[in-house]
């Protein structure tokens, strides 16, 4: 067992050696530009890209012509949202999203607002799921796009995608989803799920950083997005720029492996996750954040009341995890995702996200349980709030001086 | 972000963790910060008849720097007269622990806790609280 133990697989994943192996020839030996149509170097590169396109498409039930390669999910999100807004501006100017989206979606939406668009940021329920009635009520004849993430990066909740897309379509809007955390982890099918645009990233699925894709539906309806970068008109004119052939090969291989191993891997990871979660929620005053039924198999976000997340992580230095506490940020604001579940700031500050992955072993999970339990106990011994709680003092009865 | 060795030392082996009898008139208690902000410090001093701090204890809810700042403060307080304790400046703590700019608020909180504990002691013993002239941002 190697220390520190990596349990932050929602942030990024280590590359699978099989992915690396597939990529290597495309750095030197097969270095051609996939757009070079008139010689063998170009043909080899183009063939590799075409094959990767099929691998990606297959994982999400799409056709290869519907895959646009990008530099990652941030670019895919931006291209989808800004590109749809620009392309469909004659039809309407309203976009609906949720408050728990990734910043790439939220900030692309804010950009659209600056361009004169209207955006509705739907709140979520206490368990992190979208209220379908609220979505229905927010739809207007001007609504051109509903953008709601598939699985949440902080708490792992899976949105009711089929129901959401049905509502969007009923009102004549397109449905886009940031599926970065879901693709390759749970079955995603663009047709069964009614998805018109989908953003995905290689480095969350054991592929390389710096490459991702945007799925753009071609049939029923044929969706178009306005390019956000000018250039050589690659990727059906939607995304110019010489293709990152090794990265794309890696993304393709990563998708193929996920397709083969996802089912058994999801079972294995959810068993390990459940073990971790049950062992840690035995601790007094610990709470799982977000819906536990509709949740990605590898994530558990737990708040340990009366200890502060960053301080806790320091005691867990042998574990690489992340916290909803934002003690390091100038604003001192804890996670906006946790706050939007209605969590009080102190509980949001007390949260730790455990993200398991393909290379996580049971031995590592057992070790993580031990380390976390010890750290929580150590921090509670130091915590005046824990002492007050134990003495039966209501913390809300104290007049705190906010600083 | 990497912590300094001194922060790690105080965090791993915090000095003077504990609770003094807050009802005693020889004990001053300062409770500062707020759970919503992710930092709460409770600092207590035991003062003898010569106005010398003979014991100091703390408990802190917060990040490693907050814990280290309060641990260090208790070390510095022991043996000091309350007048000298009043002179402890947050920047002394910043310097000793090599706190980065984003963690300066932790030292500010520790200074506030010291002053709050001293004033609690003063009020209990019929003295007026000392107003801090320093304005923190």
Automatic annotation (TrEMBL), chain A:
InterPro entries per record: Aminotrans_V_dom, Aminotrans_V_PyrdxlP_BS, Cys_deSase_IscS, Cysteine_dSase, PyrdxlP-dep_Trfase, PyrdxlP-dep_Trfase_major, PyrdxlP-dep_Trfase_small
Pathway: Cofactor biosynthesis; iron-sulfur cluster biosynthesis
MF annotations from Gene Ontology: 2 iron, 2 sulfur cluster binding; cysteine desulfurase activity; metal ion binding; pyridoxal phosphate binding
Coiled-coil ranges from the UniProt annotation: 259-286
Positions bearing N6-(pyridoxal phosphate)lysine: 204
One CC-aspect GO term: L-cysteine desulfurase complex
Enzyme class: transferase
Membrane-traversing stretches: none
Domain of life, source organism: Bacteria
GO biological process annotation, one example: [2Fe-2S] cluster assembly
Binding site for pyridoxal 5'-phosphate: 73-74, 153, 181, 201-203, 242
Keyword line: 2Fe-2S, Coiled coil, Cytoplasm, Iron, Iron-sulfur, Metal-binding, Pyridoxal phosphate, Transferase
Pfam families: Aminotran_5
Residue numbers binding [2Fe-2S] cluster: 327
Reaction catalyzed: (sulfur carrier)-H + L-cysteine = (sulfur carrier)-SH + L-alanine
EC number: 2.8.1.7
Subcellular location: Cytoplasm
Domain Aminotransferase class V, first and last residues per copy: 5-367
Cofactor: pyridoxal 5'-phosphate
Positions annotated as active site in the UniProt record: 327
HAMAP family: Cys_desulf_IscS
Subunit structure comment from the entry: Homodimer. Forms a heterotetramer with IscU, interacts with other sulfur acceptors.
Its job: Master enzyme that delivers sulfur to a number of partners involved in Fe-S cluster assembly, tRNA modification or cofactor biosynthesis. Catalyzes the removal of elemental sulfur atoms from cysteine to produce alanine. Functions as a sulfur delivery protein for Fe-S cluster synthesis onto IscU, an Fe-S scaffold assembly protein, as well as other S acceptor proteins.
NCBIfam families, alphabetized: IscS, PRK02948.1, PRK14012.1
Homology family: Belongs to the class-V pyridoxal-phosphate-dependent aminotransferase family. NifS/IscS subfamily.
Name of the molecule in the record: Cysteine desulfurase IscS
Lineage start: Bacteria, Pseudomonadati, Bacteroidota, Sphingobacteriia, Sphingobacteriales
From TrEMBL, chain B:
Family: Belongs to the NifU family.
Keyword Iron-sulfur: yes
Lineage of the species this protein comes from: Bacteria, Pseudomonadati, Bacteroidota, Sphingobacteriia, Sphingobacteriales
UniProt xrefs under NCBIfam families: iscU
Matching InterPro entries: ISCU, NIF_FeS_clus_asmbl_NifU_N
Protein name (record): Iron-sulfur cluster assembly scaffold protein IscU
Gene Ontology annotations of biological process type: iron-sulfur cluster assembly
GO terms assigned for molecular function: iron ion binding; iron-sulfur cluster binding
Species per Swiss-Prot/TrEMBL record: Mucilaginibacter lappiensis
The keyword Cell inner membrane appears for this protein: no
PANTHER family noted in UniProt: IRON-SULFUR CLUSTER ASSEMBLY ENZYME NIFU HOMOLOG (PTHR10093)
Keyword tags: Iron, Iron-sulfur, Metal-binding
Role played: A scaffold on which IscS assembles Fe-S clusters. It is likely that Fe-S cluster coordination is flexible as the role of this complex is to build and then hand off Fe-S clusters.
Annotated ranges, domain NIF system FeS cluster assembly NifU N-terminal: 2-125
């Amino acid at each position: 067992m190697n220390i520190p133990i990596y349990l932050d697989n929602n942030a990024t994943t280590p590359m699978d050696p099989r992915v690396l192996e597939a990529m290597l020839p495309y750095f030197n030996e097969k270095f051609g530009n996939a757009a070079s149509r008139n010689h063998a170097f170009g043909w080899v590169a183009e063939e590799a890209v075409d094959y990767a396109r099929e691998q990606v498409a297959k994982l999400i039930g799409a056709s290869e012509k519907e895959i646009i390669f990008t530099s990652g999910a941030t670019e895919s999100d931006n291209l989808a949202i800004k590109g749809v807004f620009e392309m469909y501006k004659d039809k309407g100017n309203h976009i609906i999203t949720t408050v728990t989206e990734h910043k790439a979606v939220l900030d692309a939406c804010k950009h659209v607002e600056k361009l004169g668009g209207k955006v509705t940021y739907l709140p979520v329920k206490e368990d992190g799921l979208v209220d379908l009635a609220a979505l229905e009520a927010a739809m207007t004849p001007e609504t051109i796009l509903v953008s709601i993430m598939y699985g949440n990066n902080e708490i792992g909740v899976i949105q009711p995608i089929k129901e959401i897309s049905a509502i969007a379509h009923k009102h004549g809007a397109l449905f886009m989803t940031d599926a970065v955390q879901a693709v390759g982890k749970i079955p995603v099918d663009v047709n069964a799920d009614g998805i018109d645009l989908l953003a995905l990233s290689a480095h969350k699925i054991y592929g390389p950083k710096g490459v991702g894709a945007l799925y753009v539906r071609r049939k029923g309806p044929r969706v178009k997005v306005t390019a956000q970068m000018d250039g050589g008109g690659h990727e059906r004119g939607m995304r110019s720029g010489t293709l990152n052939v090794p990265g794309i090969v890696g993304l393709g291989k990563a998708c193929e492996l996920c397709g083969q191993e996802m089912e058994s891997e999801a079972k294995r990871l959810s068993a390990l996750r459940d073990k971790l979660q049950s062992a840690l929620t035995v601790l007094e005053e610990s709470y799982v954040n977000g819906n536990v039924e509709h949740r990605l198999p590898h994530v558990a976000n737990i708040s340990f009341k009366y200890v502060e997340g960053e301080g806790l992580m320091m005691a867990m230095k042998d574990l690489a995890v992340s916290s909803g506490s934002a003690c390091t940020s100038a604003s001192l604001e804890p996670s906006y995702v946790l706050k939007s579940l209605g969590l009080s700031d102190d509980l949001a500050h007390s949260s730790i996200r455990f993200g398991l992955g393909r290379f996580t072993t049971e031995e590592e999970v057992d070790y993580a349980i031990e380390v976390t339990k010890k750290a929580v106990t150590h921090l509670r011994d130091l915590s005046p709030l824990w002492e007050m709680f134990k003495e039966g003092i209501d913390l809300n009865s104290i007049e705190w001086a906010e600083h | 972000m990497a912590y300094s060795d001194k922060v790690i030392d105080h965090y791993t082996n915090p000095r003077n963790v504990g609770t003094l009898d807050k009802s005693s008139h020889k004990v001053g208690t300062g409770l500062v910060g707020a759970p919503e902000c992710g930092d709460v410090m409770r600092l207590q001093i035991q003062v003898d008849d010569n106005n010398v701090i003979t014991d100091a204890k703390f408990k802190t809810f917060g990040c490693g720097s907050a814990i280290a700042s309060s641990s260090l403060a208790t070390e510095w307080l022991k043996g000091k007269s309350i007048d000298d304790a009043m002179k402890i400046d947050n920047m002394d703590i910043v310097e000793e622990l090599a706190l980065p700019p984003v963690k300066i608020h932790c030292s500010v909180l520790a200074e506030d806790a010291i002053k709050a504990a001293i004033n609690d002691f003063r009020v209990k013993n019929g003295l007026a609280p000392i107003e801090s002239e320093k304005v923190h941002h």
